[in-house]
Structure prediction request, 385 residues.
Amino acid sequence: MKILIDGRTITEASSGVGYVVISLLRELSKQKELEFVVLTRKGVSKVPGLPKLQTYEMDRDYQFVGFNRFEFEQHHLPHIVRSLNPDIIHLTDSFGLPILRDKSKKYLLTLHDLIPMTQYRELMTKIGGIFYDISIRLSVNGADRIVCISDFTKKDLKHYFPNVDDSRVEMVHNGVDFVSKLPNQEKIKKILNKFDVSRPYFFYVGGFSPRKNTLNLIKAFAEFNKKHNNKYQLILAGRLSQKPDIVKTIAKMKDHITENNLETTVKLLGYVSAEEKLTLLAGATSLTYLSYYEGFGLPVIEAFSMGTPVITSTDSAMQEVAGESALYADPDKIDDMSRAFQVMVDQHNIYAEKARVIVSVLKNKYNWAKAAKQYIILYQKLYEK
Prediction:
């Protein structure tokens, strides 16, 4: 069986979907009876960590949404499929199905979220949004099988596409790379010194698009911290993208920090390595992840894996992940978010114990070997269909 995997989100320092694809390929490639070809963006000739995997490098860079991506998927992808002759095409980035395609080839679509269909539509121009709307409908309605990565995403799929047949929809949770050994205090101290973190701190890691709610997070933290004579710090880490929505959000965050003299208590680190991220999580009083909308909520699991308590949002995919082990707050209400900071300080031992207990459950539910096994079963079903 030959499978073409969409790996256009893969980079040398992959995060998000790129991280998911590499992690999945690491397990899938152990199956000797399966042949994989990975479609990669221009400049990525090998899959990081998996140099023996065959790749097909595009002549262009990756685009999240827009004309270039749409034109590639509608015009060039069918030619690539004819040339490589795979049995199955696995679209890993939520959309991208060609209108004109060889119906003997089976298409599997992994759907991470439907954010652009919600009120949190972002990171795209009006024209980009039109291409997304066309492509997501083509993809959802035309794929032979759709994989949702969470119950939350599956519910969204049924909400926005009520006519999708349940027999075409599967659930496969992403995995998480759990560490075998927590960083020691010496290592944590070294990282904290590097980033000039000198007080007990709350940690946020993720993007800075509007739905991440980071400006309100800063406001809520400042309100809480004022009552404690600025005893704590808030550390925010994430890639500082140049997309207009993100640039605008970061500018608002920086302005608020400056105008309210928060420079010593609120630190914006930008991108940190995977090792730095996990070490910062391990040393934190709590992860604060109060996003409006997530398809999965990986940082929540990563925090628990480091034994770190979590403050996160009500009515989101994070509740599916964290259950009763997290402390929840309404992301629309700054006073409720501020309250959560105080509760975390007052009941830290309780939430730290909940974090410790839930790890064994999460390891069983969210692991890449299990995910790969489920995908292999789907490949086989599609191949035999």
